[in-house]
Specification:
Layout (H helix, E strand, L loop, with lengths): L1 H36 L19 H47 L2 H54 L5 E4 L2 E4 L14 E2 L2 E2 L11
Antiparallel strand pairs: 1-2, 3-4
Helix pairs in contact: 1-2, 1-3
Length: 205
């Protein structure tokens, strides 16, 4: 009798451990899916660029985008791993459950099942609370990062001067190459030749 009770306790402990593992991997999977859907890459899952090639700001931006996309692809692989582990653990739990149901009374088995369900619910709630806080922080950081990138792109676009082109009979000149002094002709005329003022930026610039 004592041996049977010990065996039942061990089997229940294993079922409880498997139940906890299922909850954890379901939580991992949910968290990773939220990251992919929101294009969020947690700091611990972000790939790094470790080559020192003296890249400039524009190149750093391109590298950052590549690393971000690749990190999201790896997170998707993590979701697939979670799916595989969950299938295996759920099957293993079912095997232990079937063995236990055949070794104890129906009433006792139903009681243990209710205990496992309650334990599973409490574990899920705790994990959900933790991951929800983490996701909230990550979403705020992600929004801030996207806004910063938008501002940087706008600054790059506005900082680049527009070069106006002027065509003469002798070739192409730009406004920068035309220096007007006190005794020199107005912009638009060089000597006796008039420059044709363009209506739009020259396509060759």
């Amino acid at each position: 009798m004592m041996t049977t009770q010990i065996t039942d306790n061990v089997a229940f402990a294993r079922l409880k451990k498997l139940t906890e593992k299922i909850c954890r991997y379901e939580s991992h999977r949910h968290f990773l899916k939220e990251c992919v859907n929101g294009e969020i890459v947690p700091k611990g899952l972000t790939l790094k660029w470790k080559m020192d090639l003296h890249t400039n700001e524009e190149e750093n931006g391109r590298v950052a985008k590549v690393l971000h996309r690749t990190s999201l692809h790896l997170i998707s692989e993590g979701i697939a791993v979670c799916d595989r582990v969950l299938r295996e653990v759920i099957n293993l739990k079912q095997e232990y459950s079937n063995k236990m149901s055949s070794s104890i009374t129906k009433n006792k088995f139903e009681k243990l099942q209710k205990e496992l369900e309650q334990f599973s619910l409490e574990t899920q709630i705790e994990l959900l609370r933790t991951k929800k806080k983490k996701l909230s922080v990550l979403k705020k950081d992600n929004t801030h990062s996207k806004n910063s990138l938008i501002l940087e792109d706008k600054n790059v676009a506005t900082d680049k001067p527009e070069v106006q082109c002027y065509h003469t009979g002798k070739g192409l000149m730009t406004a920068e190459s035309v220096h007007v002094g006190a005794d020199e002709p107005e912009v638009g005329s060089i000597g006796s030749e008039r420059l044709s003022m363009p209506t739009k930026t020259c396509m060759c610039c």
